[in-house]
Structures are given as C-alpha cells and as structure tokens.
Amino acid sequence: MLNDIFIAPFVDMFTAPDFLMQVLWEGLVSGILYALIALGFVLIFRSSRIFNFAQGIMVVFAALTLVGLFAMGIPAWISVGLTLVVMFVLAVAIERVVLRPLVGQPDIILFMATIGITLFLIGFGETIFGGENKVMITEELGIPTGDTVLEPFGGLLILQHLDITVVVVATLLVLGLLAFLNYTQMGRAIRALGDDHQAALSVGISLQTIWVLVWFIAGIIALVTGIAWGARAGVSFALEVIAYKALPVLMLGGLESITGAIVGGLMIGILEKLFEIYWGQPLLGGNTETWFAFVLALIVLLFRPQGLFGERIIERV
Amino acid sequence: MLYRTAGQFKTSYIADQALFPVKQDAFLLGIILALAWIVFPLTASEFTFQTLLIPILIYALAAMGLNILTGFAGQLSLGTGAFMGVGAYACYKMVTLMPWMNPIVAILLSGVFSAGIGVVFGIPSLRIKGFYLAIATLAAQFFLVWLFEKWAWLYNYNASGAIQVPNLEMFGVFVSGPQAASVTEYYIVLFVVTLLTLLCINLTRGNLGRTWKATRDMDIAAELIGINLMKSKLTAFAVSSYVVGVAGALYVFMWKGAAEPNVFDIPLSFQVLFIAIIGGLGSIMGNYLGAILIVGLPVVLNVVAGTQVFEISTPSAILLVALIAAATFLFWVARSLWGVGAAIGFGAVTLIYGYAQLQGFRIDSALIEHINVMIVGGLIIFFLIIEPHGLNQLWRLIREKLIIWPFPH
Q1: Is B338 at the interface with chain A, CB within 8 A?
Q2: Fewer CB within a 10 Å sphere, N or C end of chain A?
C-alpha cells in the first residue's frame, strides 16, 4: 500500500519520462485555459468585488454564439467579430440591468445575481441556439489540426497542433492583457479601482465605464477559452464544468492576484493531471479530476488563508 | 385594522419573549398549520402532492438548514447538495442493514451522519472566510459526489449505481417505496419538517442562535466579547448539516424514490441556495416563501404552457389571475412600483399566451424548458433588485403597513 502511494508512481515517472512529459504537456494546456478563465474572474473581482459566477457560462455562451452565427451562413471571421459585439452588448446590459441597481449590496447578493445571470444565459442560449452539442468551427477559423511527434529519451511525445496554438494564443493574450493593465490609461484605471474604490472615483475614474470594460474583457477571454475548449470537447453547456475548475485556481492564487491566477492555473492543471494518472487511476478508481483541485486548494488555504498571492487580510474591529 | 396590536400588553419578560408576542401572528400560523395538516391532505390530488406539496416542504427544510449556516452564522456554503446526499445514503444504508428500524427514526438519525461530515468540512472555516470558504465547501460538494459514485458499498453494489428505496412499513402501512401512498408520505414529511422547524426557531432564538448571529456580524468582535468562535462555527455546521441531511433523506425516501449520485450535484446546491436567499437570509419563514416560489414557479409555468400537465382551463386561468392579483396587491402595499409593473406584465404575457394556446398555437416542450430556465434566472435577478433581503423582508414590510393602516406613518 505504502509502496503504491509513495514509491511506485515515482518509479513509473522515471522509467517512462516520455509519458511523464506527455502528461505534463496536457496538464499545461488545460492549466493555461484554467488560468485564462481565472483571469476573467480576477479582473471582475478586483474592480467591483463581484464574485462572477457567470464567467463559465460566458465561455459557453460566446462559443455558442460563434457557432450559431456561423451556422447562419456568416463567414467565420466576421462571426468572430459579431460575437465580440454580442459580448460587448452583454457587458453593457449586465452593467445597466443587474449591477447598477445592486451597487452597494452585500457581496453575497451580487454573487447570487451572477448565478441569476448564469441561469438566464443558459436558458437564453438554449432558446436561441438549441440545447444539443455542437462542433466548434476549428478549420474555418484556420486553426491547424494534426500533430507533431517528438521522440525525447527514445520515447514518444505527441503534441496536437491545436494544443500548441492554444498555448501560443493564450500566452499572447495573457501578455497582451498584462501590457494593457500596466501601460495604458484604461488599464491603470482598472488597477486603481481594484486598489481603492473611493480614491479612484475621486480622481475621476468612471465606475460604470470600467465595469463595462472589465466585463467586456472577461467576454473576450471567454470567447478565446470557448474556441479552445470547444475545439477539444465540442460546444455544449457541459463546458460549464471547466468554469468550476477556475474556482480552486482562484483560491490557490488569491482572488485579487493576476499573477496568482496564472501561476495557480498552471499549477492546478499540471498537478491534477499528474495525480489523476499516477495516483487517481491506479488507486482510487479514476475521475479524481473533479475534486482534486479543490482539495489541493483547501489544504494550501489551511496554511495560507489568503491564497498564495492574495492580499494579506488585515482585520480590524 | 386586522393587524391591530394595540391593547396587547406584555406584563412580564416571559410574555415579551414569547414565540408569538402578537396574537394575530399565532392566529395566522394556526390557519397555515390547519391548512397543511387537514385541508391540503383532504383536497390535494396525486399531482399536487408530488409536484408541489412534498417538494416544497423538503426544499424548505433544506434551505432552512443552509440558512442556519449562511443566514444566521454567516458562513457561505455551496455544498448543500452533497450533504443532502450524505443524509440520503446514510438513511439507505441504515434501512438496508437494519430493516427492522422505524423509518422515521432512520430518517432523523441519518442527519447525524451528515452532521459529522459537515463538522469535518467545517473545520477550514476557522481559518478561511468569505468567498474562499464558499469555494472550500465546493471541495466537499465535488469530493462527496465522487465518493457516492466510486464507493460501491454505499449503494450495496447495485449494478445501476443508484440507490433504490425499498418498501418500508410502519404499523402495517407502507410509508416509503413504490407502494406508499402520497398522503402517507406527505404526512411524514410534514411531521419531520414541523418538528425541525420548531427546533430551528427555538435554537436561533436562544443562546446558540445569538452566538451565531454575533459570529456572523463580526467574528473578531464576537471573539472579544467571549464567544468561542470554534464552538459557534462548528455547531452551526453541525446543526445545519443535520437539517440538510434529514432533508436529503426525505428527498430520496419520501419524494424521488431513487437517486443516482449526480442528483446531488451542484445544481441542487444552487437551487437550495436560491431558496434561502430569495426567501431571505437569517429568517425561518423566508425558506418556505422561497421554496413556494422556486418549486412552484416552474409548475405554474408548465401549467400555463399546458404542455405536460393539462390544457389551460377555466379554473387554472382563474387561479393564475388570482395569484397575479395577489402579487400586485402585495407589491402595492410594499410600495414597490417595479413589483406592481412586473406582476401585471407577467400576468398579461401569460394570459395572452394562454389565449394564443387556446386558439391552437403550440410551442414545443424543449423550448418551454429552456424558457423556464431563462425566466427563473431573470426572476432571481429581479427579486434581488426589488428586495435584496428576500421575500421575508417583503412580508415584514407588508405586516408593518397593515399594523399602521389606514395611517401612512
């Protein structure tokens, strides 16, 4: 038993390093997608203290809109543009209809409101585009398919071109976002709002504009994630579960930290894959990916309650 | 006028602290109890029992359990569904291992198991707060549901992987399983729910409830005035999980009849959370109001849509008009113009729709299912905007208005 837990998995790792690299690569790909979703959460949380549960459903909704528009006969790239327009309209609508009347309410009320948005978007998406599983328009968007086979250590390492594209695009998106947040006026305004609401308001930053902007950025991130994940697993509301995966990422990285979201996402993506392959499947009957990330985050939080990169919680009476 | 409190003098502290300091409240509750215990069972149809009465009671109980944790002790939990599952599986194991056991005792005992597991998953609350804790409870949610799937002992190594409620007898009457009558099931649910509601009301009024509320309002301050936070938080987790577990046992044994692990997945947790929040955090009655809304609304929508249940008929149209009139009146009393407008708008749309349907206009049932989800989502946002403190607060406003009526202040 102890051998199975502490020794055998590591022996497996060292005797088949090519397989280990394959596992790490797959973990990295899903990790970068978790990081993207978590980034959407963090941006919204920082600027408005709203724990946006609808992020996951925005992923599905964006992907559905894209596929649905394409099915109407609109060329692929124009569909992408139109989907971005839809996400912008959604951001404005959410700000006007939901957030503005609820300003200043307790956190949990706003959290509930985002669950309301989630349900509304599920119903709305299914009403318009139908509830059945759809195929992402991978080829039409020019995303390469096929794979590259490498042979490290005399073994076999298969890299899907799709996954490589995802990693490249996601990395570019994250870098672009970081540049936007650090070097543009709008980006600095978002960070200012995250640091101190009232101080930001007093120097003339418009809360409403920033909120729309942040939700729109979350919408763009949702579209990219939706395309990437939809290409691997098809587009349906089952994709929502990947949004739950972003939650332990947030716990691990800290709700306010952008670095935390990225590092946490990669950590969770890789560790949960490793655990599933080397411990979960042989010992626990598999499918441990549903809870491993949460339990890992829980254990880390017991030692660091604000997450790895979160702001130190200082409490006063 | 009806709610005149003048002249009801309290001459002792005991009288002032009574469960019903105002006579009319006790009277109102008497009417509700009489309705629930005598009128409904005599008049309700099989359909009403199975789609409205039993689920409303069970969901209200689950929401009450959650409300103790979230509303009274301030610890947000998203794992309610899994704790309901623990209650259901514990009850299933008990009645299959010990068939001689009285079913009601088994149901009440099954909560003990979920309370134990609740305490274990409540331990992080001593260090983790707010949304971090909410996500931590998701660990319980996903882990437990996974366990229900993988641990075959829990479902007695069934090929289907689901738990199937056996026929259980009590005093020669079938009380659960396929052969039990809906009325019997209803009475058992009602008995358990009444019992636990009484327990919860008194717990939250008492010493324990006050420590919970202090913890909720500001835990450091509570600690400074000598409240043991660990005890306060863990008892909240224990009591809450107990009630939720009993609700879970009732959910499977008295209503569904069988359950697969994924029944207890995250949508169930959210449904219960909706009920608790729409009903009003930190209230007992709100859970019932919330359950009536969240369970009843899809049924009403389906009846109006007329696809699965029955064609729109004169009685259901009258019922609908009456409901909408009542809602309009209540919103008007509470001075919520938004509410009045929405109630009238909703009524107009449903009536037009019903009329169109009478003329032979049909929408297919999958679409109605989708529209239902959309409407429920929209209504949650709507209720949060008009009254963030829930239906209970709405009722409190109405009651206040009635007490001073016809004067404005």
Answers
A1: no
A2: N
The upper half-sphere exposure of residue B312, i.e. CA atoms within 13 Å in the direction of its Cβ, equals 23
Residue B384 main-chain phi, psi, to 5 deg: -65, -35
What is the β-pairing status of strands B258-259 and B163-164? Answer: antiparallel
- The domain total for chain A is 1
Q: Is B18 a member of any domain?
A: no
Q: Helix (H, G, I), strand (E, B), or coil: what is residue A50?
A: coil
State pTM to two decimals.
Answer: 0.85
Please judge whether B377 and A294 are an interchain contact, meaning their C-beta atoms are less than 8 angstroms apart: no
Q: Which helix (H) or strand (E) holds B361?
A: none
Q: Are B216 and B108 contained in the same domain?
A: yes
Cis? peptide before B103, omega within 30° of 0:
no
Q: Mutation target for B interface from A61, A291, A311, A315: give the one with most B CBs within 10 A.
A: A291
- Taking only the tens place, the pLDDT of each residue in B142-200 is 889 888 888 878 777 777 778 887 777 777 777 777 777 788 888 889 999 999 999 99
B377 closest CB neighbour out of A117, A247, A306? A117
B112, B198: one domain: yes
Residues B244 and B339 reside in one and the same domain: no
Q: What is the ipTM of this complex?
A: 0.83
The number of angstroms, rounded, from the C-alpha of A194 to the middle of its chain's C-alpha atoms is 20
CATH number at residue A148: 1.10.3470
Instruction: Give the residue ranges of chain B where pLDDT is below 70.
Output: 1, 303-320, 333-336, 350-351, 353-365
B84, B179: one domain = yes
Is B375 part of a structural domain of the chain? yes
Domain span holding position B182? 44-264
